[in-house]
Design goal:
- GO terms for molecular function: hydrolase activity, acting on carbon-nitrogen (but not peptide) bonds, in linear amides; peptidase activity.
- Keywords: Autocatalytic cleavage, Hydrolase, Protease.
- This protein has nine helices and twelve strands.
- By secondary structure, it is α+β, with helices and mostly antiparallel strands.
- It folds into two domains: about 30 residues; about 325 residues, Glutamine Phosphoribosylpyrophosphate, subunit 1, domain 1 (4-Layer Sandwich), CATH 3.60.20.
- The strands form two sheets. An eight-stranded mixed β-sheet has the order 4-3-2-6-5-1-11-12.
Length: about 350
Amino acid sequence: MKKIIVLLVSIILFYSCKEDVKETATYAEKTPETSQFSIVIHGGAGYIRKDSTSDEKEAEYRQKLEEAIRVGYNILKDGGSSLDAVQKTINILEDSPLFNSGKGGVYTNEGMCEHDASIMDGSTLNAGASAGTKTVKNPIDLARAIMEKSPHVMLAREGAETFAQEQGLDIVDPSYFYTEKSMKALERVKASENKKVASFYDSDIQNSKFGTVGCAALDKHGNLAAGTSTGGMTNKRWGRIGDSPIIGAGTYANNNTCAISSTGWGEYFIRGMVAYDISALMEYKNLSLKEAAKQVVQNKLPSIGDGKGNGGIIAVDKHGNMVMEFNTPGMFRATMNDEGELYVGMFKD
């Protein structure tokens, strides 16, 4: 009898170990080798096509994307925080007239730049956001100041600008944001037959309503962060605010899952709570970042409302895996990992 019991226990233990090995193998397939740190950025998604982009303009975009991501990469490499990497990387993009954020922000119907931005700390779930500012040179700096130096998550318009002044942030005259490119885009939209509808038009992102910059990063301490900054839509009215400053729609970070920045037609990203939805699929359904991002961007977004939920996201998970998922012809984007490997893309590969 003793021998039979011992035999039965041995069989049970054998199959239990097999199940453990099986589960471990499945998990390993979902989480490739962990990276010490990773960083991914975007400069907007939309109708970005090779056949409509000159070699000179393509080189200009690629150079600026590389410049920006290397700033964040060096911060992470030296042991800096993901928050610093995100903020400083976005600063480079905000200071460039190439992108619809900061200096390159597009114009409202009144001929002004109104900026939105947000940032989130994955280690604490703290977040900060600003909306509708006209004089803050770097809106992402304001978003971080709101997160760290106020009891609030979002401040808007005059109140946000007053707070920015109190925090000693760089304040500029609205004329600083003037670019011929943005003025021509406004004139084109106003002259169009559909001029009642706000849209972001850019000769490099043709007939597009999408223009944003963003960054997501994982640092050596295992902390995730994400940030997003935008000028919104050309010809927007009535104080319109898109998804970029909305935590859960345009930006989200959680150390348990991932960090995400969105770019696209903001109204649809808000309605779909895109950034949080990807994180939730990972947390509650145990999907990988790649699986969750694909499901939301390729399936859910286009099915919202009249099917105009277009755009993309960039993201990094807690293991350092990066994803750049978009359902448009192109997205300005770049990645760097802890090996220093750089990727810069514009079109669908």
